[in-house]
User: Which sequence fits this backbone?
């Protein structure tokens, strides 16, 4: 044991920091005991402002762990919620002796949990996290419980004690024992009371039995904020500034998205990549030609332009600060010719809802659904079987890629195959046909069309190569040993730098399939 360690210098630094730890957290419980000769304990409680003077006079703890005084019942059956008015526990040390085992854990004052409506998540009583849930569904950790450590986010604790006119008290007890003190340490026995930095503690160095003891016991006060303000106060929401133009010197012009006179129709532009976050989490978000939405917000956007996303500046106000910052990193300056799409203008401004989406991915999705309805009207069954509940996200998440990334290309190609080839209604297609045992989806579809007098070899060449492309996928790359996949790579002329173009071609040929079938069978809504 080193001299500084024996003198509890590490613990004194913690006291001076008021037990704050990185990233805005406060340590409020700890069992850091190594053994009998090296013990450490931290606990806490709440004291009303008018009781601070009383409890600042000595170093002793206001209450004892496991005996928090809530509730209290006296000999004459007098009942009190708290043993002493103005003194409240924040943590509750609970132990239970059961027939086969003993259980212990620590709970948190329910009033604190209820005040912020904290969401609790954890594996058991000794491993839990409490979250604050914002109006946008964002989770922020507020309090974490581990077997030997409990910490709380300071900003939440300070708000709580401020609105309640109370102080938070962190109590501590640190002790180290050493059999023999080296003479060169020159340590003198002492019994010192130290008051500084809103803390009061006793540091005692003395003989105990055959050892020398270094012992610190005391408490530190966390004061409430000077201004009483709660998270319920609406106040003025913080909005980010976005690019709305370029001045004569070539400098970017930024404007806050807060609504003002004259900025209702100002447009700001974003890279298409801004939507990747939402496409990648289809269980949480939905993207269409006119908006990106979740259960918490719906942002109107123009998703009908291939190269960028136009958004009316003031529409961004509905996003949380975190979400606005996400969009801001993809914000781009306007260039000559950039504008909102004709479809968006006619649909969202003029209210003419008959417009079709202009981008290939959105047009495919719109056509896929309308074609399937027309087919069902004609034949009484859907050509493409409805998606199961676990696969509903496929259509929502399908989108054009914005870079020649093989992983993104493979994922979107696979989705198109799942929506078309894999969803072919083989049971209905096979009715009345003479089939070989090896006939599967595409073969059945081809024989069905032949039975209706329709032969389109080019269309089936596309479908088979699309399926072969999918069959050769291995971890977002293509199998070099799969001959059918090799043929498909040649058919689509796939190179390492043309994935965007190839996927667009797949979208076009897929839409062409719908249009060809609609025309031949004269499908109408």
Assistant:
């Amino acid at each position: 044991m080193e001299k500084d360690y024996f003198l509890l210098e590490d613990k004194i630094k913690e006291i001076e920091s008021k037990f704050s730890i990185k990233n805005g957290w406060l340590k409020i419980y700890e069992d850091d005991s190594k053994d009998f000769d090296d013990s450490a304990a931290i606990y806490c409680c709440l004291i009303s402002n008018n009781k601070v003077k009383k409890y600042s006079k000595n170093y002793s703890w206001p209450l004892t762990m496991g005996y928090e005084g809530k509730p209290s019942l006296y000999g004459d059956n007098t009942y009190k919620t708290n043993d002493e008015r103005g003194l409240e526990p924040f943590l509750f040390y609970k132990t239970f002796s059961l027939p086969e085992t003993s259980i212990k854990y620590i709970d948190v004052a329910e009033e604190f949990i209820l005040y912020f409506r904290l969401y609790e998540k954890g594996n058991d009583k000794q491993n839990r996290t409490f979250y604050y849930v914002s109006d946008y569904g964002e989770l922020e950790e507020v309090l974490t419980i581990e077997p030997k450590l409990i910490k709380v986010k300071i900003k939440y604790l300070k708000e709580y004690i401020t609105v309640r006119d109370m102080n938070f008290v962190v109590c501590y007890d640190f002790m180290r024992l050493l059999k023999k003190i080296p003479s060169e340490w020159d340590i003198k026995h002492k019994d010192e009371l130290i008051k500084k930095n809103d803390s009061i503690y006793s540091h005692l160095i003395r003989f105990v039995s055959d050892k020398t003891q270094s012992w610190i016991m005391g408490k530190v006060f966390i004061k409430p904020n000077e201004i009483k303000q709660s998270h319920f106060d609406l106040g003025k929401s913080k909005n980010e500034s976005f690019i709305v133009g370029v001045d004569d010197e070539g400098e970017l012009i930024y404007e806050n998205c807060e609504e003002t006179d004259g900025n209702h129709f100002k447009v700001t532009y974003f890279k298409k990549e801004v939507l990747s976050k939402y496409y990648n989490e289809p269980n949480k978000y939905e993207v269409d030609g006119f908006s990106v939405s979740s259960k918490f917000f719906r942002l109107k956007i123009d998703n009908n332009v291939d190269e960028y996303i136009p958004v009316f500046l003031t529409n961004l106000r509905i996003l949380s600060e975190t979400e606005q910052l996400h969009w801001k990193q993809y914000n781009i300056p306007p260039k000559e010719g950039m504008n909102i799409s004709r479809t968006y203008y006619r649909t969202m401004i003029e209210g003419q809802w008959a417009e079709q989406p202009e981008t290939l991915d959105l047009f495919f999705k719109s056509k896929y659904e309308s074609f399937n309805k027309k087919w069902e009207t004609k034949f009484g069954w859907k050509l493409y079987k409805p998606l199961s509940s676990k696969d509903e996200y496929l259509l929502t998440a399908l989108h054009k890629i914005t870079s020649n990334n093989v992983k993104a290309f493979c994922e979107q190609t696979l989705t198109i195959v799942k929506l078309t080839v894999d969803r072919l209604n083989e049971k209905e297609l096979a009715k009345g046909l003479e089939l070989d045992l090896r006939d599967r989806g595409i073969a059945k579809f081809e024989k069905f069309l032949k039975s209706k007098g329709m032969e389109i070899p080019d269309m089936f060449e596309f479908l088979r190569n699309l399926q072969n492309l999918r069959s050769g996928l291995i971890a977002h790359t293509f199998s070099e040993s799969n001959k059918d996949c090799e043929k498909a790579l040649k058919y689509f002329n796939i190179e390492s730098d043309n994935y965007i173009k190839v996927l667009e071609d797949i979208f076009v040929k897929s839409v062409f399939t719908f249009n060809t079938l609609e025309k031949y069978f004269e499908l109408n809504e």
User: Anything to note?
Assistant: The longest strand covers residues 166-178. The radius of gyration is 34 Å. The chain has a mean pLDDT of 90. The CA atoms of residues 370 and 408 lie 26 Å apart.
